[in-house]
Specification:
With 227 residues, the chain is an alpha+beta fold. It folds into two domains: 44 residues; 180 residues, Jelly Rolls, CATH 2.60.120. Strands 2, 3, 6, 7, 9, 10 and 12 form a seven-stranded antiparallel sheet that branches. Strands 1, 4, 5, 8, 11 and 13 form a six-stranded antiparallel sheet that branches. The chain is elongated. The two termini are 15 Å apart.
Length: 227
């Protein structure tokens, strides 16, 4: 057998060993993360100026279907909008969507990652609020995306979108919260979230004796070819 054929077999062996030792699996603790079932498994809190009384009202829970002007989904994205509810004359000025769930437990040495895309469009050009930053004015419109614990404490600011290491919270009860709030009396502010995913990157396992033998054999063969 030629050296090239030896190398071909060794390459196949190393590819097999690499595939055996390292893999990435999707973690499915978050329900309906792609909004393929509309807003099933998601809840909301909406604050509005009542068109009849003129007073602020708050609705919370499984209410998304009651506010079609403020919640819409397309593909794997969901959009929250501060809006005027023409049917009731209500001004929906604070729109929040959330889901409580538990991150799966993971193997020792593995890691857990949360990814998502976030886009916002605020009528006054405002930005995401920064905790403890007094420059975020009270009358600025703002939007937020965050991971919180079961007490409501913010664990991660997800406002920029991207990929976040959430390994430390594996096996812990948490919630994803997204919201957009109008403070300048000009409705139409939006927040869109999409491509939400939770991924476990598994650790490299200790090779089984048979696998270790194949690995050593491959090294010996490689040395013989080079000799």
């Amino acid at each position: 057998m030629s050296k090239y054929k030896h190398l071909k077999h060794l390459s196949s062996l190393f590819i097999f060993l690499f595939t055996f030792c390292f893999c990435i699996n999707a973690n499915a603790t978050l329900l309906n993360s792609d909004f393929s079932s509309g807003f099933d498994d998601w809840q909301a809190e909406v604050e509005y100026i009542d068109g009849t009384s003129g007073l602020d009202e708050i609705d919370d829970g499984n209410i998304i279907a009651s506010f079609p002007d403020s919640f819409s989904s397309f593909g794997n994205s969901a959009t929250l909008t501060t809006a005027f509810d023409g049917n009731n004359g209500n001004q929906l000025w604070s729109v929040v969507m959330y889901q409580d769930f538990m991150f799966d437990s993971i193997m020792a040495g593995s890691s857990l990652w949360l990814s998502l895309d976030v886009i916002f469009d605020l009528t006054d050009g405002g930005t995401f609020p920064v905790a403890g930053d007094p420059s975020t004015g009270f009358l600025d419109d703002f939007a937020f995306a965050q991971l919180v614990d079961d007490l409501g404490n913010v664990l991660l600011d997800l406002s920029t979108g991207g990929t976040f290491d959430v390994t430390v919270w594996a096996g812990i009860d948490v919630a994803l919260e997204f919201g957009v709030i109008d403070n300048d009396f000009s409705l139409g502010d939006t927040l869109t979230v999409s491509n939400i995913g939770i991924t476990e990157v598994k650790a490299l396992p200790v090779p089984a004796p048979a696998t270790l033998f194949l690995y050593i054999l491959g090294i010996v063969l490689l040395k013989r070819i080079r000799a």
